[in-house]
Write a structure and sequence with these properties.
single chain; alpha+beta; 7-stranded antiparallel beta sheet; about 20% strand
Length: about 160
């Protein structure tokens, strides 16, 4: 289970929620995922994201899979994973950070999400706490991450 931040290319004339509703309406959980076929523009976006995250944040590991391009942060404050699919992306943070560590890792996740927004035109939203990435407070996200992490450690360990 992970804390997830969603990024999506909002379709012209639609809101973020309407775009997500259309994407979800076409989702078939029994179908195979479509193979990743990026346009040249999307590949250029990914290249810019990868360069900028590496420059502004530090070392990352990057992989290309059949369905997405992925980068993961390396080292402190913890692992943040970005999966990019062209018109959508998402960021995952494991529920194992609490207190000051949760704030540090969520500040990192929000920095990465804002870079994705800047370089790709995708719009990010943190549905865990109901706030847009552009203007959202990583502290609010950290409080949620910390609370769930503490609960899981207490009840599931």
């Amino acid at each position: 289970m992970t804390y997830d931040i969603m990024l999506v290319r909002v379709q012209p004339g639609l809101t973020l929620q309407e775009t997500l509703d259309r994407l979800n309406a076409g989702f078939d959980p029994d179908a195979d995922l479509p193979l990743l076929r990026l346009t040249d523009a999307q590949q250029n976006e990914w290249d810019r994201i990868l360069r900028r995250v590496s420059r502004d944040i530090g070392s990352v590991e990057s992989e290309e899979y059949l369905y997405s391009l992925t980068l993961e942060t390396v080292g402190p404050p913890g692992r943040v994973q970005l999966d990019y699919c062209g018109d959508t992306a998402h960021i995952e943070v494991a529920y194992r950070h609490s207190g000051p560590a949760a704030l540090e890792v969520m500040e990192l996740a929000y920095r990465i999400a804002r870079i994705v927004e800047d370089e790709s035109g995708l719009t990010g939203h943190d549905f865990e706490v109901g706030q847009p990435i552009r203007t959202g407070d990583p502290g609010k996200a950290a409080a949620r991450l910390s609370g769930v992490s503490d609960w899981a450690q207490h009840h599931l360990s």
